[in-house]
């Protein structure tokens, strides 16, 4: 019997399905803690608009903190390669992981311990 598994990424705020090009994962940090949230384009724009008054007055640090989640623009670079490496390792080791979106802390921790 064949089985087909479909993984959908959904907006963490309102539960709408995020299709290609209509949103994605947003990484940010606040008070030294890094976060990721999956948002539709509309909610991503709402987040940007809410943060804009603060960001426009803030001082850039010129560097990201070690261990911080990669930003949206850097995902196609080195950060994306690491995520792909974790996904490939996870599949090889019996974990179920989607092609996009967040990778659970459990899987990331297991990957780090296996290194």
What would your notes on this structure say?
Mean pLDDT is 82; it is low at 68-78. This protein has helices at residues 41-55, 78-92, 105-114, and strands at residues 9-10, 17-18, 23-30, 33-40. Helix content is 35%, strand content 17%. It has 115 residues and is an alpha+beta fold. It has 3 helices and 4 strands; from the N terminus they run E-E-E-E-H-H-H.
How would you spell out the order of helices and strands? Answer: EEEEHHH
The fraction of residues in strands falls at: 15-25%
Give the spatial strand order of the biggest sheet: 1-2
Helix amount, in percent? Answer: 25-40%
Counting DSSP H or I runs of 4 or more residues, the number of helices is 3
Largest sheet: 2 strands, antiparallel
Q: Which structural class is indicated by helix and strand composition?
A: alpha+beta
According to DSSP, the number of beta strands is 4
Global mean pLDDT: 82
What are the key terms here?
two-stranded antiparallel ribbon; alpha+beta; 115 residues
Helix/strand layout:
Blueprint: E1 9-10, E2 17-18, E3 23-30, E4 33-40, H1 41-55, H2 78-92, H3 105-114
Antiparallel strand pairs: 1-2, 3-4
Task: Provide a short characterization of the protein structure.
The protein is α+β, with helices and mostly antiparallel strands and 115 residues long.
